[in-house]
Write a structure and sequence with these properties.
Layout (H helix, E strand, L loop, with lengths): L3 E6 L6 E4 L2 E5 H23 L2 H9 L3 H12 L2 H5 L1 E4 H20 L8 H25 L1 H5 L5 H8 L8 H19 L3 H26 L20 H9 L15 H20 L7 H18 L15 H23 L4 H13 L1
Parallel strand pairs: 1-3
Antiparallel strand pairs: 1-4, 2-3
Helix pairs in contact: 1-2, 1-3, 5-6, 5-10, 6-9, 9-10, 10-12, 10-13, 12-13, 13-14
């Protein structure tokens, strides 16, 4: 559990050692690795274009990163003293988004669209999705997020995604809005596109939950099985449990807890696999979307019983996410029925499926 996975430091260019709960790596290692990656990119582009000038310009643009690091080092800017942190939560979000987009781009041919369209569309999903995820989190934790803050600190607290604090349900709602707008502009069936990206959404969540584990949010209840985990003092889990009085402020770690983040990650990857398999046999547009709409709330409702990061809401014995899960399960069943009544794939998808079967 590392809030900061590693930190590129400048005091020793070739350093490589653990410092507390962080891995410190000399900036020279980063610059060397980056230059090697750029060189590989140059070769790849040149093999494709056979144009040395274009390849050099494409690859050379990325050399600005180590150049800026070298300039900061030479000028002894403040970042040289603090180092450059790589946050586990942010890194996992990046890995999740990239993996999800790549997998969707391989699947989108089944509805008669080129892979490039996914990369365009995912930017429409990313920004509204992050906004929706953050707004949902703020609505749930308004008092704690903004407590004691004034002026610019209020704005900073509202947008501090680097400190965690997003809700998957909110990202889905926001992302759906962005995807629908994109599909309407491109004259693509939104339901067919949601079937394409449905499995990828849960791949993204799977990596995102690993980020939660590294950061310490979405933590579980106390337990004593052999796989229970304890979070260190620099984690969000430790901070919250200390404020609650569950553990003393000078404790060396939290009490043993359910690793609910890893449970959620495993469940998300399993759900992604189920939807990916179902996609190949989907009987109508929207079938994959509706199946995920039904299965995820069941999974989330159960996992919420093992979590200890959210109180019950509105005088009930259920958390906000459990109440949302109930509503989504009912609406998901209704969506499956409604989409099945339409009973057809898009024309492009039907032709693509026919071609795929003929090739087998």
């Amino acid at each position: 559990m590392r809030k900061v996975l590693l930190r590129f430091v400048f005091d020793d260019a070739w350093q490589w050692q653990n410092a507390g709960n962080e891995l410190h790596i000399g900036a020279a290692w980063f610059m060397l690795l980056w230059v090697v990656i750029v060189a590989i990119a140059f070769v790849a582009v040149f093999q494709k274009t056979k144009n040395a000038t274009e390849s050099a310009m494409s690859a050379g643009f990325w050399l600005i990163v180590p150049a800026l690091m070298g300039a900061a080092w030479f000028l002894q800017l403040p970042i040289v003293k603090s180092g450059i942190p790589v946050f586990g939560y942010g890194l996992m979000m990046f890995v999740g988004f990239s993996s999800a987009t790549w997998l969707a781009s391989r699947r989108v041919r089944a509805i008669g669209q080129p892979p490039e369209i996914i990369w365009d569309m995912m930017m429409w999903a990313l920004i509204p999705g992050l906004i929706g995820a953050r707004l949902t989190y703020l609505m749930q934790n308004w008092d704690t997020v903004f407590a004691g803050k004034k002026g610019g600190d209020l704005l900073l607290a509202a947008i501090a995604l680097w400190d965690g604090g997003i809700v998957f349900y909110g990202s889905v709602v926001g992302g759906i809005v962005g995807v629908v707008i994109f599909c309407r502009r491109r004259k693509i069936s939104p339901l067919a596109m949601f079937d394409v990206i449905g499995p990828s959404m849960f791949v993204g969540e799977g990596f995102g939950r690993i980020g939660c584990f590294l950061y310490g949010c979405c933590f579980g209840r106390a337990c004593n099985p052999s796989w229970a985990v304890q979070f260190p003092p620099d984690s969000l889990t430790f901070e919250i449990l200390s404020k609650r009085g569950t553990i003393p402020p000078d404790a060396v770690a939290t009490i043993p807890l359910h690793p609910t983040q890893l449970y959620s990650s495993f469940a998300a990857f399993v759900l992604a696999g189920i939807l990916a398999c179902y996609f190949r046999r989907r009987p109508f547009d929207g079938a994959v979307l509706a199946l995920g709409w039904i299965l995820y709330p069941i999974n989330r409702f159960i996992l919420e019983t093992l979590r200890d990061d959210e109180p019950n809401r509105w005088g009930t014995n259920f958390t906000f996410s459990q109440l949302m899960s109930m509503g989504l399960l009912i609406s998901g069943i209704g969506a499956m029925y409604y989409f099945s009544r339409r009973g057809k794939l898009t024309k492009a998808a039907t032709q693509a499926d026919t071609n795929q079967r003929a090739q087998r």
